[in-house]
Amino acid sequence: MPSALILLADGTEEMEFTITYDTLVRAGVACTSAFVSDEKREGSSGSYESNPPFAKGSRGIKILPDTYFSPQAATPDKYDLLVIPGGAKGAETISSNSPVQHLVREYIQAGKYVGMICAGSLAALRAGLPKQPITSHPSVRDQLKDAFEYSEEPVVVSGKLVTSRGPGTAFPFALTLVELLCGKEKRAEVAGPMVFPKGTFA
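-> structure tokens emitted (202 positions)
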């Protein structure tokens, strides 16, 4: 069974996190969500490893993660996919985290998939990934366009790096991840009961 580690933080975009997690679970992917704390929260409240706090999303929705982010428990020998959602504040916390940056490079080097959506694509820049096709939310385009081959396609697959644009592209992003991990037939099987309008990305 394929497995995925999906990161989240305070300020993570709820749709990008939830749609991706839910769609992967429908495909039979074993998903784990891990809370990445910013220094301010971690410094004032101590360690949450055994009892992670809820993450307060970009629209104020509270999400209870499965675990607290631990670099040692997040290595590419344990998961087939690493997902970094957007949301300006959450993406900043996650992409600025040095262990996350290291993991992004490790996953790519190990031939494992890394998915980034919306401002989460900043993690590609902060991790120092080589110039390649990429997309993101328009709000962070200017930070990425010189370092990468910027695209405005809904989903861009560049080797093992998969990037997407925002809440409105979360379904094609998640279904692309399903296809890469589980095949085209599984993508169709998952998309069917979701009842997408005819002619859309499913």
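The mean pLDDT is 93.
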